[in-house]
Design a protein that fits this description.
Helix content is 49%, strand content 17%. The strands form eight sheets. A six-stranded mixed sheet has the order 6-9-8-7-10-11, with helices on both faces. Strands 2-1-3-5-4 form a five-stranded mixed sheet, sandwiched between helices. It is built from 29 helices and 28 strands.
Length: 755
C-alpha cells in the first residue's frame, strides 16, 4: 500500500523521509508511529506547525524489514522522479532531507552525519539534511543537534533564497601580502584564529583569520609542487609567524589547540603564547555529551555548509581554501561559544579548570616516561608463551581450533555448541539486538557458568590485549632510550576525567588504563631519579558521603583505618575483628553499586552472588546509610526540573539522553567523578607550577593519581611537598571535605612503597 504525501501545496517546508513503517502503512499517513512522535515533539519545540508542512517520503511503500537497502536502485530512482514532481508542485522554500537516502537522492551527497545542518543548493531548491527521527530513537544524543537543525529550517523557510556571508579568503598571497599581513597583526595586537595542515611531519600551510570574514592561508608546499617561496622568503615568513604566535599580546583562538601547538613546538621551535580560547574545549565545557569537531561547531554556529571533505582534494587551491576556512570558522565559532559560556555561567570554570590545563598537559605528555627495554622484551615473551599455553589447553577442552578474537567463531561455539544462554548487544546503526561475544558477554557467561573454557578464553584475550596495547606499541626512541609519550584529552569524557591516547605522531598509547603488575614495572624513572606517586584515597566514595550528608558514613572515613573493613562491620552488623575477607570485598563492591544506583541483577553478576542475596546486601547498605537514597532522589528532582547538574567546583552537565535507569546511574556518578577529576587537576596544576623549571617532572595523570620523578637524594622532601600540593579543601554545602593523599615512592611504576 502506498503512503502518499500530506500537506498543503505552497507549504514553506517540505519534509522528506525515507519510507513508511508499519504504523504509517496502516494509517496511510507519513510519520505517525514512534518516529513520528519524535518528529512532532521537535517541531513543537522549535515552533513549526506540522499541518503547515508538506510531509512525504522518498519511497512510498513500506520496504522489507523497514530497510531501503532491500529496494532495487532502479526502483528507487523511479520513486525519486515521482518525488521531484511532488516537490515541484508544492514549491517549498526549504526541503528537509531526513536521513541517508533523501540526502543522497536530493543532493548527491552521502553521510548524514557530515552534511546535516548544511544549507545545500539543488535544482529543486535549498535542502537542509538532518537526522531521521528513527535514528534519534536509536541514538538519543542526536536529538539536541537535530533541534538546532530544525531551528535553522524554520529560519530558512522565510524565503527560498540562500543567504551567505561574503568572506575575504586569501589563498595565493604574494610575499608582500604575507609580510604586511603578519606585521599588522603584531603591531595592532589583532586577535587571530590560527590553523595548520600537516603531512609527513611538515606543515603544508598555516592560516590566520582576523575576523570571521577575513582569513589568509600561507602555503609552503603541496604534493610535488615544491616550496612557494625562496629560502630567504620562507625563513622571513616563519620568523614573522613566530612573532605572531609567541607574542602574548596577540590574543589567539584555535580548535584543538594542543595538536597545533605541539606540532609548532616540536617541529618548528615555536611556543604559542596568548591562547585566549580553544573552541573545542570551550564547547565541551557547555555540551560535554555532544561531539566537538569543527564540522559540528560549524553547522551549529555558522552559515557555512560542510566542507571538510575538501581536505582530501588533489586540487591545491581547494586545499588551501579549506585551511583558511578552518581559521575563519574557528574565529566565528569562538565568538558565539564565548557568549554561550557566559549565558550558561561556565566561563570562570572554563578558564580556571579546563583552559589552564592545555599547556601543562602538553608538557607532561611530551616529557614521557622512560621504558626498561629489556624488561619490555622479557614481559612480551612471557605473555606470548602464556598465551600459547592457554590456547593449547583451550583447544584440548574444546576439541577443535578456536580463534577467540573471531566474533563469528565465538558466537558459533558459545551459542550453537555450548548452548549457553544468549547475550545480546544493541547495534545503534540498525537499532536492533545482535548476539554478543565481546568482553562483557564473555565475562557475564563465565560468572554464570564458571566454565574452565571461558576462563581460558578470557585469559588468552587478556594476554593479546596487553601485548598489542602496551608492549608491541611504537614508542619514541632517543639516544637509545625508549620513552612512552601520550596525548591527554581534556574533552575525552563527559565527567571531566582526562583520557589519553597515542601522540600526534602516532607513537605511544593510552597511559591511564595500564593494569598493575608486570606491565607497570617496565616504566622506570630517568637515571638518578625516583618515582613519587600521589593518590587520592577513596576519593569518589568520600565525595558521595559528603554530598549525601550521611554522617555515619562520613565518620567511617574520618576515623581512618581499613575503611572497607569498617564499612563491612556496619553493613553486616558485627565487630571489625569478625569481618571475613569475603565480607570486606563485598562491602567494597556494595559501596560502588549502591552509590551509583546499580540494580540487584547487575550487582549480583558483578559480585558473584544470587539476585536475592544482592537485594539483601543493597538493602542492608541503604538501611545503614539512608541518606544515600535521599541524595539519589535530590539528583532525580534536579534533573526533572533542569536536566542540568552542577558540581561543587562549578562544572556543569546537561543530560540529553532519554530518561531511564542508565541516565540516572550516569547522573548519580557525575558529580562525584567530576569533583574528584577537577580536584586532582587542581593539584596537578599546582605541582606543575611548583616544578615546571626544576629537575622534578610530572610524568602521568592516572584518574585519581599523579606520577612524578625527582632526584633520589631529595625524594622525601618532594613526597611531602606533593602531598601538600594535592591536599585541597572542597566546600560541599556547609561541610568541608579534604580528600587524604597517599604518597608512595619506588624504582619503577609497579613497585611503589608508602613514603
Amino acid at each position: 500500500m502506498k503512503v502518499e504525501g500530506v500537506g498543503p501545496n505552497g507549504a514553506k517546508i517540505c519534509i522528506v523521509g525515507e519510507a513508511p513503517g508499519e504504523q504509517e502503512e496502516k494509517k496511510g499517513i507519513p510519520f505517525v508511529g514512534a518516529a513520528g512522535k519524535v518528529l512532532d515533539d521537535i517541531l513543537e519545540e522549535v515552533g513549526i506547525k506540522r499541518d503547515e508542512c508538506y510531509i512525504t517520503n522518498l519511497y512510498k511503500e513500506r520496504p522489507k524489514s523497514n530497510d531501503l537497502s532491500t529496494v532495487d536502485r532502479a526502483e528507487l530512482q523511479r520513486a525519486f522522479a515521482d518525488l521531484q514532481a511532488e516537490i515541484t508542485a508544492v514549491r517549498p522554500n526549504v526541503i528537509v532531507a531526513l536521513g541517508h537516502y533523501p540526502l543522497e537522492y536530493l543532493t548527491g551527497y552521502k553521510s548524514i552525519s557530515d552534511w546535516r545542518g548544511s544549507v545545500i543548493e539543488t535544482s529543486l531548491g535549498k535542502v537542509i539534511p538532518t537526522y531521521h527521527p528513527a535514528g534519534i530513537l536509536r541514538e538519543w544524543t542526536f536529538r539536541p543537534i537535530s533541534v538546532v537543525d530544525w531551528v535553522k529550517v524554520k529560519k530558512e523557510s522565510a524565503d527560498a533564497g540562500i543567504k551567505t556571508v561574503a568572506r575575504d579568503i586569501v589563498i595565493r598571497p604574494s610575499f608582500d601580502d604575507v609580510t604586511t599581513f603578519l606585521r599588522a597583526i603584531v603591531s595592532n595586537r589583532t586577535k587571530v584564529a590560527f590553523d595548520i595542515e600537516v603531512e609527513t611531519r611538515q606543515i603544508n600551510c598555516i592560516a590566520f583569520a582576523t575576523a570571521p570574514v577575513h582569513a589568509m592561508c600561507i602555503p609552503f608546499w603541496f604534493g610535488a609542487s615544491g616550496s612557494f617561496w625562496s629560502e630567504e622568503q620562507e625563513l622571513e615568513i616563519w620568523q614573522l609567524i613566530k612573532q605572531v604566535l609567541e607574542d602574548s599580546n596577540v590574543p589567539k583562538i584555535a580548535q584543538n589547540a594542543q595538536y597545533d601547538m605541539t606540532i609548532l613546538r616540536d617541529l618548528y621551535g615555536i611556543t604559542v603564547n596568548g591562547l585566549g580560547l580553544d573552541t573545542m574545549v570551550a564547547f565541551h565545557s557547555i555540551y560535554p555529551e555532544l561531539p566537538k569537531g569543527l564540522d559540528l561547531l560549524c553547522s551549529l554556529y555558522t552559515d557555512v555548509s560542510f566542507y571538510k571533505y575538501q581536505r582530501m582534494t588533489k586540487d591545491m587551491d581547494t586545499f588551501f581554501r579549506y585551511n583558511a576556512m578552518d581559521a575563519a570558522v574557528t574565529f566565528e565559532c569562538a565568538e558565539k561559544i564565548a557568549k554561550e559560556m557566559e549565558e550558561f555561567g561556565i566561563t570562570k570554570f572554563y578558564y580556571e579548570h579546563m583552559h589552564s590545563l592545555i599547556v601543562p598537559l602538553m608538557d607532561i605528555g611530551g616529557k614521557g616516561v622512560r621504558i626498561d627495554s629489556e624488561l619490555r622484551k622479557k614481559v612480551t615473551k612471557e605473555l606470548k608463551i602464556q598465551e600459547v599455553e592457554l590456547q593449547d589447553k583451550l583447544e584440548k577442552l574444546v576439541g577443535h581450533p578456536l580463534n577467540v578474537n573471531s566474533p563469528k567463531q565465538m558466537k558459533g561455539w558459545l551459542y550453537d555448541e555450548l548452548k549457553l544462554k544468549p547475550k545480546f548487544k544493541l547495534r545503534k546503526d540498525k537499532g536492533e539486538k545482535t548476539l554478543a561475544a565481546d568482553e562483557e558477554a564473555l565475562d557475564s557467561l563465565y560468572r554464570e557458568t564458571h566454565l574452565e573454557e571461558l576462563r581460558l578464553v578470557l585469559g588468552i584475550r587478556e594476554c593479546r590485549k596487553l601485548t598489542s596495547t602496551y608492549l608491541e606499541v611504537e614508542y619514541d626512541k632517543e639516544n637509545g632510550v625508549e620513552r612512552a609519550r601520550t596525548s591527554y584529552l581534556i574533552t575525552g569524557t563527559e565527567t571531566g576525567r582526562l583520557s589519553s591516547r597515542e601522540t600526534v605522531y602516532g607513537t605511544g598509547t593510552n597511559m591511564q588504563n595500564i593494569p598493575k603488575g608486570s606491565i607497570r614495572r617496565m616504566f622506570v624513572p630517568d637515571d638518578g631519579k625516583t618515582f613519587v606517586n600521589a593518590d587520592l584515597s577513596q576519593a569518589e566514595a568520600r565525595v558521595v558521603a559528603w554530598l549525601a550528608g550521611e554522617n555515619r558514613l562520613m565518620q567511617v572515613f574520618t576515623n581512618g583505618g581499613d575503611i572497607h573493613r569498617r564499612n563491612a562491620a556496619n553493613i553486616f552488623r558485627k565487630a571489625e575483628k569478625d569481618v571475613t575477607k569475603d565480607e570486606r570485598e563485598l562491602a567494597k563492591r556494595i559501596v560502588h553499586a549502591s552509590n551509583y544506583g546499580m540494580g540487584p541483577i547487575t550487582f549480583a553478576k558483578n559480585a558473584g552472588v544470587s539476585v536475592a542475596e544482592a537485594k539483601k546486601l543493597l538493602n542492608a547498605y541503604f538501611s545503614e546509610y539512608p541518606r544515600i537514597k535521599l541524595w539519589h532522589m535530590s539528583i532525580e528532582n534536579t534533573l526533572r526540573k533542569t536536566r542540568t547538574l552542577t558540581t561543587p567546583l562549578g562544572r556543569k552537565r546537561t543530560f540529553f539522553n532519554r530518561w531511564d535507569s542508565t541516565l540516572l546511574r550516569e547522573a548519580y556518578a557525575y558529580i562525584p567523578q567530576s569533583t574528584v577529576a577537577d580536584v586532582l587537576n587542581v593539584g596537578l596544576r599546582r605541582c606543575y607550577a611548583e616544578y615546571r623549571n626544576t629537575d622534578t617532572n610530572i610524568l602521568l595523570q592516572i584518574h585519581d593519581a599523579v606520577l612524578l620523578q625527582t632526584p633520589t637524594p631529595g625524594v622525601a622532601n618532594v613526597a611531602r611537598r606533593v602531598k601538600e600540593l594535592l591536599t585541597i579543601p572542597i566546600q560541599i554545602g556547609i561541610q568541608q571535605l579534604v580528600i587524604p593523599v597517599d604518597v608512595s615512592i619506588g624504582p619503577n611504576w609497579g613497585e611503589l612503597e608508602k613514603a
